[in-house]
Design goal:
By secondary structure, the chain is an all-alpha fold. The chain has one domain (about 5-125). The protein is built from 7 helices and no strands. The protein is globular and about 40 Å long. It starts with a helix and ends in an 8-residue tail after the last helix.
Length: about 130
């Protein structure tokens, strides 16, 4: 993908329309780039909509699984992703449970399957 196309996609994370921000977050993992992960994490600083915040984190995690991240971005990922997964309040109780399960899946020896948790959060990453 060209740098110009990537920049255009990343710029959509700041769109005034919540739906555009949500759709953009859902597609950014496909860029498979550290820049996409950083942009998703950067957006968390200003994003107020709880559902968009959840989509940003889930897709940052998905994108991180598709590319190599430097140690600085990896550390930042956990500093910002974990709190969102643990504290977000979504309208659907089943999705809240899936968020907590996803957070637990990253703990060493938790035995929690992240794929199962992600299925409960499908609307945040599937197109």
């Amino acid at each position: 993908m060209s740098t110009e196309t990537e920049r255009a996609w990343l710029a959509r994370l700041s769109d005034a329309d919540r739906g555009v921000r949500l759709a953009t977050a859902k597609g950014l993992w496909k860029l498979r780039s550290e820049a996409a992960v950083e942009a998703l994490l950067d957006r968390l600083d200003d994003e107020k909509d709880e559902e968009v915040r959840v989509a940003l984190v889930i897709n940052a995690l998905a994108s991180a699984g598709e590319t190599h991240l430097g140690w600085r971005v990896q550390g930042r990922m956990w500093d910002v992703a974990w709190p969102v997964l643990r504290r977000a309040k979504l309208p659907d109780p089943a999705e809240n449970d899936a968020l907590r399960e996803l957070a637990r899946s990253f703990r060493w020896r938790s035995g929690v399957d992240p794929h199962k948790a992600l299925e409960g959060l499908r609307r945040f990453w599937a197109e």
